[in-house]
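pipeline: protein-struct stage 2 | run 1193 | GTPase HflX
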Amino acid sequence: MTDSFPHRQTASESSQQTGDLTGTELEDVVSRVLARARSRSESASPTHPGDDVPADDAAASARPAHERLGRARELAPEDDAHVPSDGDQQDLAERHALRRVAGLSTELEDVTEVEYRQLRLERVVLAGLYSSGTPADAENSLRELAALAETAGSEVMDGMLQRRVNPDPGTYLGSGKALELKDVVAATGADTVIVDAELAPSQRRALEDVVKVKVIDRTGLILDIFAQHAKSKEGKAQVELAQLEYMLPRLRGWGESLSRQAGGRAASGEGIGSRGPGETKIELDRRRIRQRMAKLRREIAAMKPARETKRLNRKRNAVPSVAIAGYTNAGKSSLLNRLTDAGVLVENALFATLDPTVRKAQTPDGIGYTLADTVGFVRSLPTQLVEAFRSTLEEVADADVIVHVVDASHPDPEGQLKAVRDVLTDVGANDIPEIVALNKADIADPVVLARLRNHEHPSVAVSARTGEGVAELQRLIAAAIPRPDHDLDLLVPYVHGEVVSRLHAQDAEILSTEHTPEGTRLHVRVREDLVGDLEQYRTDRAPGGAAAAEDHPSA
Ligand SMILES: Nc1nc2c(ncn2[C@@H]2O[C@H](COP(=O)(O)OP(=O)(O)OP(=O)(O)O)[C@@H](O)[C@H]2O)c(=O)[nH]1
Ligand SMILES: [Mg+2]
């Protein structure tokens, strides 16, 4: 049917005129990107798109690895099996129990709800441009977009890439490609197009006018995922703020497509949705959005002190802090679970973690430290989100050591390393000592692992799944965290036995212990904050310290 359209040229014609990929190149890329979507629609699963784990994936893992790589995934080419070290994945059950059901809401309570409803995704077609990079780069980016779309709960029907030096200022894609996209949309029955870029509001509108379905961009999609996943009060507020910020300049466009959706009813002026927002309404909405944003900013600012206090407390007690950072789906939460038995949510989805967890951990020689899980990073993380999550990311900026987790089985681990480092630089965390954990070593290509190990120092190949390399990672962490550095000789009278137990509990390195008639003699290394408390027991600097201790027994 599409062949009858004059703009559908043969591959070679079109590549001469618009600089598209050649026919085979394009076929190649798209077929690889969409292999999974296709295999899924062939299996014609009657269930909800999000519930398709069993049959499909079992079949996929039975196929040879090179075929499985064709899955439209940044996601692992694997089932979602959990290993015991993942702990109880209660959050996962909860998340899966709550699925979106489209089109249920009928009444709009306030303007923000309009936007949320606008973003509800179902069957989507992806579209991207590639200018300077290789086809492989473009393919990776489109794969990632497919994974993001799936994480947001939609089904990817098809994808298109156009080779073009600069985006079309009007419709982003060239006008011919835009029409072609319209055909693909019609042929697949898609209701949404997702563009792999941040579109200017006018581009989004113009493209929407061509393809006749809703168009959203990468930023809108990521914001949508964050909105679905945020759980804590602060996380929710931050995401809403980012969404509103993103929406504000685009308000007019949303309003228009909304009134278009209302269709005939709007024209005949009856019933719900008939009052398409006119200019005045939009002005009003803008003001309400600004007010809401101001309120959210105040709320977030008010939540900050609690976090700050906690962090300062940790600093005061000088417990070393380690932050786990890395690209989304790299296995950060899995690794945290491995290192601490935390039972943090692990999911083969992008941005599973939005509410960072801080856990206690210990080096093999018993030095305590905190280990913080963080929000995953992604290429071109929307600036609105970097802003909104700055306080979360500050947790990283404040760490003594960063464990940078990379998915070594990913097609472009170097690109992920760079994307993460860009954000780290953004939040001022670039000079913190970094340990690179090359995760998923169980399924990674040994050649890639070797290449990464050569370039990244210090680095270690690990598998959160099998536990391989985790002991080595623990050793690297132990070597990197600040150690207690005050060397003291103590004599603690037996009546003050609690001091000795406190030393054991409090991250002191106890180098020697000797029981003498006067009390316990210890040679220890402690952190600054303990030195004052121990002054009265010191035999190295304060001669007669033991006697002093008798005079002023500590509480
Ligand atoms: N084969 C293999 N899979 C792993 C390994 N580590 C994690 N995974 C899988 O990778 C997926 C993502 O793991 P998570 O721990 O949720 O990743 P994350 O970095 O916390 O992801 P976000 O929170 O979404 O940013 C899950 O399906 C894990 O089971 C590993 O060492 N080997
Ligand atoms: Mg996580």
